[in-house]
Design a protein that fits this description.
InterPro entries: DNA_brk_join_enz (IPR011010), Integrase-like_cat_sf (IPR013762). By secondary structure, the chain is mainly α. It is 56% helix and 0% strand. The chain is built from six helices and no strands.
Length: 105
């Protein structure tokens, strides 16, 4: 995962993320007990998106693209667009998003 970076624009490494979660666990024991990590957060978030908005939106939210090795033909026909992804984000965060549709924000 390289979505965040240092001030010099170098991406944060997996090892650095692991170190940060170890330090957080020293202050919040439940983080260590539950095995919270960057991957755990991603998995939990994507599971929530899939259960509340569907498989195609969860795939797009994760940044996955349809490939020939994808699980099933249906994935090629069920693709989510930016409005659906923005709606999932707005629902998850309970914050408005200008590209979201069908929200009460």
């Amino acid at each position: 995962m390289t979505s965040c970076c240092y001030r010099n624009k170098r991406p944060i490494t997996r090892r650095r993320y692991d170190h940060l979660w170890t330090r957080i666990g020293e202050h919040l024991p439940w983080v260590t007990t539950q095995g919270v990590s960057t991957h755990w957060l991603r998995h939990t978030t994507l599971t929530w998106v899939e259960r509340n908005h569907g498989y195609a939106i969860a795939r797009a939210y994760a940044g996955h693209t349809t490939t020939s090795s994808d699980t099933g033909t249906t994935a090629a026909y069920t693709q989510a667009g930016i409005p659906e992804i923005a709606t999932a984000l707005a629902t998850l965060t309970n914050e408005p998003h200008p590209l979201a549709t069908n929200t009460n924000h």
